[in-house]
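Appendix B. One record, verbatim.
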Amino acid sequence: MTRRSVVEYVAAQRERYTRASRPDKGRLLDEMVAVTGYHRKAVLRLLGGRRRAPPVGRRPGHPRVYGPEVAAAAQLVWEAAGQIGTKRLQPFVPELVARLRACGELALEPATEQRLGQASAATLERLLAPARRTVPPRGRALTRAGTWLKQQIPIRTFAEWTDAQPGFLEVDLVGHCGESTEGSYLYTLTAVDVATGWVELEALGGRHQRRVRAAIHEVRRRLPVPLQGLDSDNGGEFINHALYTYCREHRITFTRSRPYKKNDSAHVEQKNGAVVRALVGYDRYESRAAWEQLQRVYRLVRLHTNCFQPVQKLASKPREGAKVRRRYERAQTPYQRLGASGRLTPAKEQELARRYASLNPLRLRREIDAALEQLWRLAVRPGTTNTRTNNTSGDDPTQSGEPSAHTASVTGDCEVPVAPGNHQF
């Protein structure tokens, strides 16, 4: 019998059961148990026809601590931090709330601010669950092995970064080729300081060795600390005479990862996905206009990433029997880690502090979103014709090769066309 048939059968027997004597009720109950296959108590509950009354007043259980006002504030803070994970976000919440309040972006009741500050990472995860977005698909691998100078450039593995000081960078290229690797298209050079998590991004019109060297020269010029070391993969864009000579002339330690071991470059690979792909996406860009707009995006992104996106670093990884337990340091922004490293000169430290105090994280996010909207309009979609704006040569849209004054004037610390106060480091 179906549940509906059982309910109809018991309802038909209810009047008979109500009028029966006690011995007859027992016999009738045995009959209904045999027909329905239900337990006697279940049949009695159906005969009684009682329904659990809906709760009156507050819901059962503990009272709600983190209401919709806390969830709304958490979402605003999460947006200001670039939608990062809650384990990185939670230690930075008090400072970010104070910064948003000073910028006039957030006004909270004292009780709401207190609850938001005491929320754990797991609580923030639950509060932010409705606002989460899907992860974009993976892109194409564009690394081609470079055979020159492999014997001269030593290998450095992921386990050898435990004593890294600020100034040692992992570098990699991200190709903006869309669905096809044919033809010429833009690249992004991603450079990550291993010790602090500081991120530098530079758009390139190709991966020729001279263009890569020019981009690394710009990264070196912008870096708040002296560039001491470079670690790359085995692609020919890095393993070449031009970059090897450049590093030797400027006394920069040049190392490479093991072939086919992406975990040796874990720091830069993580930023490739969490920063470049998460923002720029997987479209194809070819024109000079797209290169110029990508540079504008990166001038804003580097400010937001380095100042308002905390980074977790592994503190220890002890083995307990068959389990390996990872313990992480308290999440800090790259700017905070750089200031605590003691490697900044007093003048540079004051300059960074002054510029950090002038930044509004939510305004930066809005400007990044607006710049990305303009960039996405310049993408080359499948089935459309390629129109290279201001670039009839079909070569590198930056028109740059050597690290020259022209390169510095185009890709250096020029004035960002946004609201006053948004300066570069």
